[in-house]
Amino acid sequence: MGTGIYEYGMVLLTGLLSAPHCMGMCGGMMSAWTLQAKKEQVLPAILAYNAGRICTYILIGGFMGFIGSFVSAAGQLVGIQGVANLLGGSFILLWVFRKYALPFAAWSPTRLAPVQRFITAHQQKAGLLPVFLGGLLFGFIPCGLTYTMHMKAATTGSAMQGALTLLSFGMGTLPALLVIGLFAIGLGKAVRRRVLFVANGLAVAFGLLAILRGMVFNGWIPGISPWLW
Questions:
Q1: How far is 119 from 154, CA to CA, in rounded Å?
Q2: What is the value of pTM for the model shown?
């Protein structure tokens, strides 16, 4: 069961609804790079930063989908189908309800001293290339919602579908970061809570659908529809 167009749409919507989180976490990091630009170069700088960030998302999504394909293949050797769906869906639910996550942050290249020196040295430099490189590096910093999308990419069991999943999510996050970069607009706490509640609800849906699909692969429950499980 591949990832359907409707599912990419759900991922895109999750990215849109993650706006309050993106404004709080990514907005400050992006501003550290883009505020150095001249007034007429602010929009190109914002786009360059986000292009770098989304490129990293695509790379990670492809990698996670690739890993998912191996996990599923290993499961088939012991007679269990759809292991990537079962594990990926379980990890999504563990993050949403228990805030448990795999230690991706510890593996981020931004923790390396040479990378930190590079960031410090290039943050003040003019031009779009340093901004793009900054987006590439900061795209490796995991947060809760990107983590769930990493797990969602793994459930696809395909490098291509994993990359498209993170591309969809990255494009969904873009409008919020464009707004904060151009106008420095924030949202009230009450609005942020409501919107993030819906985004987390979609994450739960992804986790449950992944687990149900894994159960269908094994014949434990009947399939309902290619659009669901």
A1: 30
A2: 0.78
